[in-house]
Amino acid sequence: xxxxxxxxxxxxxxxxxxxxxxxxxxxxxxxxxxxxxxxxxxxxxxxxxxxxxxxxxxxxxxxxxxxxxxxxxxxxxxxxxxxxxxxxxxxxxxxxxxxxxxxxxxxxxxxxxxxxxxxxxxxxxxxxxxxxxxxxxxxxxxxxxxxxxxxxxxxxxxxxxxxxxxxxxxxxxxxxxxxxxxxxxxxxxxxxxxxxxxxxxxxxxxxxxxxxxxxxxxxxxxxxxxxxxxxxxxxxxxxxxxxxxxxxxxxxxxxxxxxxxxxxxxxxxxxxxxxxxxxxxxxxxxxxxxxxxxxxxxxxxxxxxxxxxxxxxxxxxxxxxxxxxxxxxxxxxxxxxxxxxxxxxxxxxxxxxxxxxxxxxxxxxxxxxxxxxxxxxxxxxxxxxxxxxxxxxxxxxxxxxxxxxxxxxxxxxxxxxxxxxxxxxxx
Length: 427
Description:
Immunoglobulin-like; six-stranded mixed beta sheet; 21 strands
């Protein structure tokens, strides 16, 4: 156990659940293996086999063209896959990475753009395909989305011309190291030593090409990054936490990667930080969200849709991609993680109210935010306030208020850690 600067005694928590889950999983998988072996020759498995088939490119529905001064790329695929986009210089080019697409027939797609000089495609790294469009000048991505139409998926990327300085700055951003992290396909995590520090993952929402809400020259992405860095320092001073950030700069981090970071770090806790804006109605004060299949309010549903859509527009949406075994195991993990998450949310609410911080009229809500869906990691999404509220905007840009809020979140985490350790000891 460890003693914090506040005199709170912290025991390693959650380990009994992890050990019991691991033991059950081994037996469960063995039983399933025997059961599934009986059906290997059955025709029904064709659907499962389809999940491993590469996405196919439909040449007839794929196009490279111009819309005025803009370049528009439309890729028709047989199924949705994770994807990412960026620009590079020398020469100027658009990079599209997919997990994974059979680009074999792309040479048969006519290039009807005056600004695309060459098109190349191939395997980028194991499990990833890369499409490269060489351009005749500096362009930036102004639109990037993946949508479905019937049984087909369309990826649409639009590029607009920019000056050389803007392009050079964007092209100079290094490829994120976390692009190579594994996808979160299993709820199992490595066994940790009980003396290890508890891992808290802070997830500043949005970033890069996705600024989030914007008001009066302030962007949600930059405000949340600054706040997360402040909160990180407070947690580190306790001496009992390892704090990991899903992003340390103003860059876009796909939803898949945010969850992968938490899993790769064997996170014990994930806190996603946001400050949204409502286009209609009024909302003021902090809200703490936990995962729910259905949003607890219409506004919560709207926000959940917008958060997930932003990640989809920037290239990733992995919802529903898990296989049967992983789904069953995740349901098991959620059953035990959900009450721990609820207690975390309640502890955060208690700490914020004790600090006399402005709370929403319904401070505890549930919504379908995808970043909360890791089944075995207690996860909350905190809307620190709403940029659409002048009062909240003033608070979010006030250094004294931000310090009070960061301290309250730290205190809420400490309260939860102590209670969770006590409850785990009763198991």
